[in-house]
Amino acid sequence: MTETQELEAGAAALGVPLEMRQLQSLARFAGLLRRWNEAFNLISRADVARLIPRHLLDALSLAPLVRGARVLDLGSGAGLPGIPLAIARADVEFCLLDRSERRIRFIRHAKIELGLENVTPVVADFADFRPDILFDTVLSRAVARPVSLWQIAANLLTPRGIALFQVGSQEREADGLAANVEPLLIRIPGLTRPHQVLRVSARAPASEGPKQDTDR
After folding, report:
1. Which of 47-56, 99-108, 203-212 ranks highest by mean pLDDT?
2. Cα–chain-centroid distance for residue 110?
3. Phi and psi at residue 190, in whole multiples of 5°?
4. pLDDT digits (tens, 9 = 90+) for 3-25
5. CA-CA-CA-CA torsion sign (35, 40, 41, 43)
6. Handedness of CA 72, 92, 111, 40 (dihedral sign)
7. What is the DSSP string of 146-181?
8. Phi, psi (5° rounding) for residue 63?
9. What domains appear along the chain, each with residue ranges and CATH number?
């Protein structure tokens, strides 16, 4: 199976239909990651062999959860999950924020190489970031504890906005969050363990009743 075929099958299993041009862009992004990683250590070297499921499909798993037209990837690192999501969701504007100039330089290069007009790379520390317009969704992929991330994200979201935090498998990840939290378990094709996402908002969900983990 080629990488493009692996991406197509994995994305379909996640409920993310992609056209061939999007699949090819994702495969090109994987190639860029591998080349730059040799010099800049953008991702763990142990993850290179499982780059498609561990990083690209993991990022794409958030596509059905993204809300609104403006999304912030907080601590984007190597453009994950922001770049794969920007490829999959051309209808959404993505701001990719990281404090590392080196990582943002890679994101800028990927933006140009892949023609991603809906990506805006920004070098800034979380605490110093003051956007002109608030975001509908804030994403973050295991860059800090959710309680710390929410303190930042809550000030960057529109009143009906949500945060999507990709976290570890620990049961107590949501502890201390003074907000409405929905834990989601997402099964990633090619990986043995489901990944956990916390969907956080300042508003109570429309439905009543206790929140439960959701298998997708």
Report:
1. 99-108
2. 16
3. 95, -10
4. 999 999 999 999 999 999 999 99
5. negative
6. positive
7. HHHHHHHHTTTEEEEEEEEEEE-S-TTTTTT--SEE
8. -55, -45
9. 3-215 (3.40.50.150)
CA distances (Å), 18 to each of 13, 21, 25, in order?
11, 8, 11
As a whole number of angstroms, the distance between CA 209 and CA 180 comes to: 12
* CB-based contact 188:57 (threshold 8 Å): yes
pLDDT, residue 216, reads 41
Contacts of 134 (CB under 8 A, 6+ apart): 70, 156, 157, 158, 161
**CA separation for the pair 157, 163 (Å, rounded):** 8
Average pLDDT, the chain: 89
Measured at the CA of 10, the angle between CA 8 and CA 14, to 5 degrees, comes to 115
**Residue 108: which of 126, 146, 82 has the closest Cα?**
82
Phi/psi of residue 200, nearest 5 degrees: -120, 140
Helix (H, G, I), strand (E, B) or coil at 216: coil
Rg of the chain over Cα atoms, rounded to whole angstroms, equals 16
CA–CA distances in Å: residue 65 to residues 92, 175, 200, 216: 13, 22, 11, 11
- The backbone region for 115, taken as left when phi is positive above 0, alpha when psi lies in -120 to 50, beta otherwise, is left
First to last CA, the chain: 24
